[in-house]
Amino acid sequence: MKKFIIAIIVLAGAGLLGWKIYEKASASGTGSRHPRARIPVAVEIAEVKKSEITDTGSYTGSLYPVSEFTLAPKISGRLERILFHIGDVVKPGQLVAALDDEEYRQQLKQAQAEFAVGKATLQERIDTLENARSEYKRTVALREKKIASASDLDAAEAEFKIQEAKVKVAEAQVLQKEAALIAAKIRLSYARIHVPEGMNGDYRVVGERFVHEGALLSPNTPIVSILNIAKIIAVIHAIERDYERMKPGLQARISTDAFPGRTFTGTVLRIAPLLKEKSRQARVEIEIPNDGLVLKPGMFIKAQVEFGRRQNTTVIPVSSLVKRNDEQGVFLADLDKNTARFVPVHTGVVNGGIAEVVSPVLDGWVVTLGHHLLEDGGAIRVPEKETDKSPVFESLKRRERS
Predict the structure, then answer these.
(1) pTM assigned to the model
(2) Dihedral sign of CA atoms 287, 288, 291, 296 in order
(3) How is domain 101-190 classified at the architecture level of CATH?
(4) What is the architecture of the domain spanning 58-66+231-309?
(5) Residue 205, strand partner residues
(6) DSSP readout, 56-93?
(7) Per-residue pLDDT reduced to its tens digit, 15-30
(8) Which of 68, 276, 292, 370 can pair with 43 through a Cys bridge, CB separation 3.0 to 4.6 Å?
């Protein structure tokens, strides 16, 4: 028992000694003032440059023909033939379709006959009027000689006036028959559907065929649609932020998936005077010369509208922009001290991976990769001194050389 108590005392003393040694060691470690070595962050950098930058807006939209209309009959009838198919070129005045016109030909013949009868009736009334006029003059002369009575003179005058009225009625009937004849000719002409005149110089094609030969048509039934695609219209929609900058005459570059790598040049033609309440967007129409007629209505397009150009302005890669404490800026690289300093910046135009720096004045080098690990004044390591081989600035150099 005595030995057990002694063993416990020895163990307690050893534990206390160990604790004291640990406290001294901890105090010695805490009191050390040797700073930890900073580990440099490997980064990529690019040079701040002076260059031209284009202020553009990016939009999507669709293509439409300059004009489109549908040919339809004004009368009913059976469609005898259609002379054109989709894609065929048509010219002003060309016959496109024909209806069965036998009924309208018979109506024209009837109108011609009635007009002839009216003219003959009018001539008969004129001859009768001349006889009545002669009889009236003769009776007047006889009355002056006291040969004819007053009643005879009154009867001759009444007959003359009656025949004069009949001539006027016959003349009105002739005009009526003539109008009916003209109407019959017009109805007959409606059986032939032509391309409207007065479109010289335009390239027009058949867009769609809506009916087939033999179909019974009522008035205004669509037969074919005619498109003008000598020029094409790209329709985009501008948001409120860009609406005031949109002006007729601005240049636009158009691209479409149908022709990868190819761009077309257009001009802003019209801008809607209102923004739609639901979308808060305004319709903008861009006119594009359709050389080779390669662009077709209905294609989906992407448009770059050029609002202006900034000459000799400070530009940096967009990849160099970071946020620290809710403030946008860049890390400027000091290649002599191998450190990076955070500088808040205000940007202007952003285009094609390049951003314009409005303020402050920048020069030197900016960190484009690795800045997410950096703090203000942090150490950096640049693996390669050829720092301006950034893909963004390589394309910028090629543009400057061209």
Answers:
(1) 0.65
(2) negative
(3) Up-down Bundle (1.20)
(4) Beta Barrel (2.40)
(5) 89, 227
(6) EEEEEEEEEEEEEEEE--SS-EEEEEE---TT-EE-TT
(7) 555 555 555 555 544 4
(8) 370
